[in-house]
Every structure is written in structure tokens, then in C-alpha cells.
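The instructor's notes for this session suggest beginning with a concrete chain rather than abstract definitions. Hand out the sequence below and ask the class to guess, before any prediction is shown, which regions might be ordered.
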Amino acid sequence: MGMNAVNLSELLAHLTAANRETEWVEFKLNDDAPEEIGEYISALSNSAALTGKRAGYIVWGISDDTHEVVGTTVRLHSKKIGNEELENWLSHQLSPRLNFQVVDDEINGTPVSLIEVPAASHTPVRFRDHEFIRVGSYKKKLRDYPEKERELWRLLERRDWETEAAETHVRSADLLALLDYPAYFELLQKPLPEGRSSIITSLADDKLIEFDQLRDTFNITNLGAILFARDLSKFSSLARKVVRLVVYTDRDRSSTLREQIGQRGYAKGFAGLVSYLNDLLPANEQIRQALRTEVRMYPEIAIRELIANALIHQDFRISGTGPIIEVFAERIEITNPGKPLIDTQRFMDAPPQSRNEKLGSLMRRMKICEERGSGIDKVVKAVEMFQLPPPRFDVTDQHTKVTLFAPRKLSSMEKEDRIRACYQHACLRYVSNDTMTNTSLRERFGIADENYSIASRIIGETMDAQLIKRRDPESKSNKHAKYVPYWA
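After discussion, reveal the predicted structure:
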């Protein structure tokens, strides 16, 4: 939201009310040296985080001594470094990138300029080669103040992405235009309150918004925007977090059939996304008890859970990338930014860990995803019921990818697919308080009883891979042997 003359005036009234400059506010007259501005942005961002403020401010046109609006010759929007605009130049020199706001305006006919600097979120902000901090009203290198540096890191490590602001200084009328608040009440099965204040109170209670006392406006949190934005492109920091769905004509990415890019927040858009994807997928017609029914190639609950997991467990601090669903002729790949917090081999048994606890909790309350820790269990169970190849979990430097495979005969599966299926089957049986046997594995693959030796061979391959073990290592019987995962 841009600042209008009214809320700029209110902001300056708050900032000039103090007897002296604070560690998160810097007043200037006409000094607009680019290097100095960059260093102050770093210092104010880090100091705002250290003092618990949402933002720091550099204001031109304010007297240091009297805090009166005296005017300035500085016009930030028109200033250039060579052929590059100042704002763009500063963005390239700061690490990590900051969504700072530049304002050139007038107060009662007197020109003022301002830069609003968001507080550092997950790492100290650096300008070129150094991080800066404010010590009183002085700008210093952070490394020269190790106590402040340690405290800043401690505070940043405790901050969560969900409660940071996606949009600041939002008036109540604009707030309800940006957020799909009816969806919030609908998904939580609550009646829509009468009156704006009751709606706002409910949104604030769930940390979707917060009141900004400094400006008498509201901040929309990342949690509120990512779940309930009417249009995520309206939030510059979240525009790349929309879900992309790409359908290819064959087994590779050489030819795209269609591409769908999400617009709404995850909460309202989730059901439509799953439904749209399911409608795209092939189905087989089967006759059961004289009734014709359609059976999808992939189990809907598996698709639903994997998409929900990709949304909830992504690392939102990885910029420039978001969740993507890719449909190929013989598989579906669901990719999200960020490495998982637990080993992929332990997805079914390890206690759940999430970067985004508030996001996951609210999505569970809205029945968008299953209860805590049960999602991957349900995926594997559904895949086994459909007798599909086992899902595959891959981790790269910055992403996690899950692949669901279309039906394939056991004889067409690679050795690694058979081993993975056997291991996942043993995990599923174990977390269901049961054990894997030759019989249960034959049922999983649809192997005829007389071909039990095929199941025995797969079990042997999985034991050689050290992914399963005998429950009773003393037993010599192969016929009645029971198996558990290696970690059991």
C-alpha cells in the first residue's frame, strides 16, 4: 500500500514525537550520498529487529534539533547512480534483498522524503561487504559490537515467517478488499459476523492481521496473505509463491499441453486446485455390481495430501520459487522449495516437524489436510491399494520433490522401485502395529500365492539394501518370517 498524505503526516507525527533520534529512526536534511543511504538502510533494518520494531525510517526534511518539518531538496525517485535509479541500485547492494519503500511527498507544502526499511527477518542485513547497526544515534559496523551481533542473531533465529508482515499500513476498508475474509469463516464453519470490527477481531485472533499502533492502520501477516489473499500478486513478496500446475504431453518437458498459475491464497484455492487436477487425470471405467464407475489413475487422497504437504512444509524464505505440480504421461511430480526437516526415509514414523506451525495448524482446522503426522501414511496406503509403484522422495539443494507413478506391472519396475516399495510397505505395517510378511508383500504387489519366491527375492534385495530386518533375528524360518524397518 502506498502512503497517502494523511498517513504520511500521521507517521511523521509519531516519529518526531521523541526527544531524540531512536535507534530505528534517522533524520536528515539534504545529505543523500548513496553509500551513506545504503549503510543506514542496513543499520536501521538490523536495529529495528533488535528493538522489536516492524520497520526503521530515514526521513529527509526534519530538523535534528527541533524535529520540525523544515523541508529538503532530496527527491529520491529522481536520483540516479550513473544511469541506474537509486532505488534499484540500493536493492542490488543489499543482502538479503529488502522490500523497502521510498516516498517523495509534501507536508503542508513542505517537501519531505522517506525510506521505510523493513526489520531484518532471518539474517542481518548487509550493505555491500558489511552489516551495520545503530548505537544510540550513531551508525556502526555490527562486527565491532559482538554483544549486539549475538543478540540480533538470537532474535532472528526465533522469528517465524508467518507472523512477519506481507503488507503494512493497510486501512480497514482495503484490508477486507485484499483478504477473502468470507472464506476464512466458511472454511472454519463459523457464521460471518455482522460489522467490520467483529470480522477484524477474528482475523487478528488467528494472527492473520495485526494492528499497527504507530500508524493507526493494519499489517497483513504472511500467514493471512498466503492463505486468504484474493490475489497473491497484490503482495510483492508472495507473488512467486503461487502454485503452478503444468501439464506436459509426454514423459519430458519438451512440449507443454497447458499451464495454470494460481491466484488465490492457499486456503480458498486448495479445493479447486485438487479438483481441477483430478479432472485432468485419466480414469478407467469399471463395472461393479452392474454399476459403471470411474476409477482415477492416481488416488485422490494421495494427491490431496502431497499437495497439502508441499504447501505447508515449503521454505518460504527461499526467494524466486514456489510450489509446482507437473503432470507427465506416466507420473506426477510435486515440488516445493526447501529441504525437509527430517530424513525422507523416516517420513512415516518420525515426529512431525514443520517450519510453518501456524500455517499447518490452521489448514488442519479448516480440514484442508489430515491430522498431524498421518499424511504420508495415507499416501503410501492409497498407493498400495491402487497397486501403483511406490512414491519417490527426492531432495536437492533447495527443493523437495515427490513423484507419483502411473500403474506399472511388477515385471516392469526397476530394482530400486521394488526395494523402495518393500521398505515403504514394511514402514506402513510397522506404524499400523503390524509386521511385513511374504504374504502381505504378495498382496501389496498382487503376486499370486504360488509365486511366493518373487516376494522372497524382493525381501532379500531390500534386506541387502539394509532397509529392513527380521523382527526375530534368531528365527531361521523363511516361510513364517516377519520383517520390520531397519530403524525399528
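Then share the key points. The longest strand covers residues 110-118. The radius of gyration is 28 Å.
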